[in-house]
Design brief:
This protein is mainly beta. 0% of the residues lie in helices and 28% in strands.
Length: 71
C-alpha cells in the first residue's frame, strides 16, 4: 500500500510531491513546498492512495492545511 500527494496544472499529468509506503503508528508532520507553482492559474492537488487486499488496517489519513505564503 502507498499514498502520495500529487499536483497538476492541467488535470491530466500529475507529479508526485510526497509519499509514504510504510506503516506509521504515529502522526507525521510534513511541509510541502508549492512555490514552484505559485503562478499557476489552475493548480490541482490530490491525495492518491493505492491499496491491495493484503491487509485490513485503517488506511491513510491526510489533513489538508491552508495554502498561502508570507508577504
Amino acid at each position: 500500500d502507498w499514498g502520495r500527494l500529487e499536483v497538476s496544472t492541467d488535470g491530466n499529468s500529475w507529479s508526485p510531491l510526497y509519499g509514504v509506503s510504510e506503516v506509521r503508528t504515529n502522526w507525521a508532520q510534513a511541509t510541502i513546498d508549492l512555490s514552484p507553482w505559485k503562478n499557476a492559474t489552475n493548480l490541482r492537488i490530490r491525495f492518491h492512495l493505492w491499496s491491495d487486499s493484503g491487509g485490513t488496517d485503517d488506511g491513510w489519513f491526510g489533513v489538508l492545511m491552508p495554502i498561502g505564503g508570507a508577504e
